Amino acid sequence: MKYRDLNPSTRTIMTPGPVEAEPRVLRAMATPILGQFDPEFTYIMNETMEMIRDLFQTQNHWAFPIDGTSRAGLEAVLGSMIEPGDSVFIPIYGRFGHLLTEIAVRYGAEVYNIETDWGTVFDPQDVIREIDRVRPKIVAMVHGETSTGCMQPLKAIGRACRERDILFVVDAVATVGGVEVKADEWMIDAVIGGTQKCLSVPSGMAPITFNSRVEKLLLQRKKIEQGLVEHGAKRVEQTRMIRSNYFDLSQLMDYWGPAQLNHHTEATSMLYALREGLRIVLEEGLSQRFERHQLNATALVKGIQAMGLTLYGNPACKLPVVTCISVPEGIDGESVRSMLLNDFDIEIASSFGPLKGKIWRIGTMGYSCRKKNVLHVLGALEAVLLRHGAEIEVGKAVQAALDVY
Predict the structure, then answer these.
(1) Residue numbers of the domain that contains 304
(2) List of residues 6+ apart from 36 with CB closer than 8 A
(3) In a domain, 111, yes or no
(4) Taking the model in full, what pTM does it have?
(5) What is the number of structural domains in the chain?
(6) Strand partners of residue 349
(7) What is the reported pLDDT for 223?
């Protein structure tokens, strides 16, 4: 045969995503296919919606996955909410704030940004002052920036947006399932998650939820597009030109709601995977899961510090599920990553933009967030750094992590 059997290497994946998939999730993906309008499949869809509500800690009626990667979820939410000329405010503290900006611009928004140094986050009061200056229709923010390993406090910003009748959209792709995300308590109007990070489900779906404020906006826009209200032909045509069909939340509401109107063919096996991943999260318990992620992150950090390496970023805003490490002076960071992969079957990540080649990023997410993995990566990193001639404290990293455990 020209093509060999598919037999990927077994890796210890310690990146900020994708991470190792839960074995139970992979088994769920191998179960028989059902038709998308089979009553059994409808029951699975409804169960999944209920579990997504629990995941985001919300009472929202609308909670369902977008078929596609996390970026598909971001585009579905922003693209469905934004009309050409809308004012959208996006504070940027890493790569994914720039992504939110690009998506908003593509849908015709007038975008306002403020930026802070990578490795830090915003004082919420600074964001609120800028909200009062800009008076946008939508504020969109990243909760956990995997590019810098930082996490933005959101509660005060959400409250300020609600008091000013501004819609608050949050990218929680990197945090949901590993860190507290309270959609209702933090007054988030729409929030987007991802499967391939703390949920330990293969990339391919993006769970989202949005409240009645967003629903009202979507239904108003739908009426305009259907010509049911007088709104000026030119504006209706503009909206139609920019809005996506596949990512149209108003159509997806008809698909996931009681009407079950055909919109697309559901990704059956991916829905099985998401359902099982959510079931595992809720079976463990959210608070216990968050504690596990924090414990393993703490053990990793103590080991890194005991080795004599320097953490990157402000520790006060550290993202619990991603640890960033400054590459030591004179060490080829990519050579270290390559040796970890080729000799130890461990994958860690570099970063983007101004941080490319300057830091390593180690994820402790979902199924990858295990004591065995933390000890393995610390021992291997020490060995690889010694082979590269780095001046480190030998034999202390794993012991420091064991002290935490």
Answers:
(1) 286-404
(2) 265, 266, 268
(3) yes
(4) 0.95
(5) 2
(6) 361
(7) 83
List phi, psi (to 5°) of 94.
175, -170
Q: Is residue 225 part of a domain?
A: yes
End residue of a domain, out of 249, 281, 313: 281
Asked whether the beta carbons of 139 and 160 are under 8 A apart, the reply is no
pLDDT for residue 233: 54
Question: Is 9 among the domain residues?
Answer: no
For tokens 């923010």, the residue is: 141
Q: Where are the beta strands (DSSP E) in 116-161?
A: 138-142, 144-145, 150-151
* Residue 384 in tokens: 């690889």
Rounded distance, CA 300 to CA 397, Å?
A: 8
275 and 293 co-located in one domain: no
* pLDDT (tens digit per residue) in 149-175: 999 999 999 999 999 999 999 999 999
Which of 11-20, 174-183, 240-249 is predicted with the least confidence, judged by mean pLDDT? 240-249
Judged against a pLDDT cut of 90, whether residue 231 lies above it is answered with no
**C-alpha span between 236 and 225 (Å, rounded):** 6
Model confidence at 1, pLDDT cuts 50, 70, 90, reads confident
Task: State the pairing for strand pair 322-326/346-347.
Answer: unpaired
Domain with residue 277: its CATH number is: 3.40.640.10
Q: Are residues 267 and 397 in the same domain?
A: no
CA distances from 197 to 21, 25, 342 (A): 9, 13, 23
